[in-house]
Amino acid sequence: MRIVFAVICLMWLPILALTQAQAEVLRLEIDKGVVEPLPFAAPVFQAETPGANQLAQQITDLVIQDLQGTGLFRGINRAAFLSTVDNFNAPISFPDWRTINAQALITGAVATGQGGRVTVKFRLYDVFAGTELGDGLQLAGTKEGWRRIAHKVADTVYERITGETGYFDSRVVFVAESGPKDNRSKRLAIMDYDGAGVQFLTSANDLVLAPRFSPQGDQVLYTSYASGFPRIHVLRIADASQRALEVTEGTMSFSPRFSPDGRTVVFSLERSGNSDLYALDVASGARQRLTATPAIETAPSYNPDGSRIVFESDRSGSQQLYIMPSAGGAAERISFGKGRYGTPVWSPRGDYIAFTKQAGGRFHIGVMRPDGTGERLLTASFLDESPTWSPNGRVIMFTRETQGPNGAPALYTVDLSGRNLRKLRISTPGSDPSWSPLQR
Amino acid sequence: MTTSKVLMALVAGLALSACSSPDRFDNPSTGAGTGAAGGINGTGGVTASALDPTSQAYFQQTVGDTVTFAVDQSTLSADARAVLDGQANWLIDNPGFVAVIEGHADEQGTREYNLALGARRSNAVRDYLVSRGVDGDRMKTLTFGKERPLQVCSSEACYAANRRAMTALNAAGL
Q1: Using CB atoms, which residue from B116, B122, B153 is nearest to A298?
Q2: Positive or negative, the Cα torsion across B63, A229, A209, A368?
Q3: How many residue pairs bridge chain A and chain B with CB atoms within 8 Å of each other?
Q4: How far apart are CA B119 and CA A223, in angstroms?
Q5: Is there a contact between B153 and A405 if contact means CB atoms under 8 Å apart?
Q6: Which of B109, B122, B147 sits opposite A184 (nearest CB)?
Q7: A311, A322 Cβ separation under 8 angstroms
Q8: Which of A64, A208, B15, B62 is positioned for an S-S bond with A75, CB 3.0–4.6 A?
Q9: Is the Cβ pair A296, B116 closer than 8 Å?
Q10: What pTM was estimated for this model as a whole?
Q11: Phi-psi region of A351 (alpha: psi -120 to 50; beta: other; left: phi over 0)
């Protein structure tokens, strides 16, 4: 199968600031629990070349959509604007923007050139301080890559206002599902973080489960029934080439995940009905056993420095979360609430572990600190599972499946705070998302 | 194998089928008719080929190819063991067949855990059949976790039928 991705080459060029940037006063503190979204204005970016009008409109709209989608920002309706921005380099009439209570102002310009080349310039203003927030920037790419350019602009705005890295220029691999509930067809697919541009990575011939991105975002681990039995596989995104990583006769393997350096794959290997965790050195193929109990050990996930692994085990009698050194050894239980805990995933920031919890007949996505304290349930439904973190550790994407004979899965996101629950708009039912690192 | 043994296994299979799938006919929304698996009431009647005791249809419909489990469990109930006694006898009498035992779970669980649970169930069946004299080299185990439910409703009636291990025969070898 041939996968064609829009080629995009992004180039960053600082633009000389119009006014000397002062101490940054506009700052949204996400940690303090933002309830009221920050109002901003984004006039349609100027079209600097003939024919760039539609692209300028699309890019501006997507920047606004990205920012509003976080629940942290609110775009002010253009009908309320008192001023227009007709020239990217003209001085800003700050009082007009203060009057409509725009805290931030984003201006931009779009030019198209030979061979589908697109150049986008933008500036971010702190309206009440009357200054630019950081330098203006110029991005160059291709027309097919316009969405990535818009996501980069939005990431920059997000980063300058919140002080944290953005997550808009990122992708998600997931399982696209079709067909009846008792005979589902499942294919690996990849899309932008917002559900745009779905492309299939595998055919519908073989059942596939739970893809996981490599730390570089260039490969995907997953479980495939291509051999008739579940086995862990790796797929290279550039050409969709696939190979089995574990082919030991008489065993099954599943639930693989890369170490942060990409050199090791930790996974569950089943033998004679017992599932234990193993670490596979990708280069040599050498395999090391990490757990040796008669219990079910699965769903392993490394901490950001790769020194520890969180996983689930029913060694206590029910599914609970444990942490052990990444070379194996004594495991410490960290979940003690009422109910069962599974699918732990360590945040890329290291501060939280997301999990699926079953309690009282409901499923929840929740988070707790690695020492087991601070447990917080973020969602509740008939069936929520398989959390994955945004690259900045602020948002969790997960699967929500509806009940009954016509039940179907869909992907949702929720903020770490538990606010801003959203269903992704995607062209296909999907499950088991894995969020990529931020693209470069 | 004696005739009385076959009859005993048959009766046991009937009893299990009757208690493990209460809604198969009463509730049209539960996906009745999705397959022959599950005992003699799966297809609404014994087909002509199933009259031949050496046929796969006979194994599916009369011996019973499926046993069910309690929530989160992989231990075999007395009913399940009775069905498996019949499977063991049939496999011993019909050495031309090999079997893949599929373990399944209901949807009330996370995907990875259910894969592991399905593997426990298929291995519990395999181990029992080996203990009853079936050559272990004739059997392989497989798990589908919650990926292939037999019945599609989201209530205990369907869940009980979906927590199962199904012995799939193959005359062509493993």
Answers
A1: B116
A2: positive
A3: 106
A4: 15
A5: yes
A6: B147
A7: yes
A8: A64
A9: yes
A10: 0.89
A11: alpha
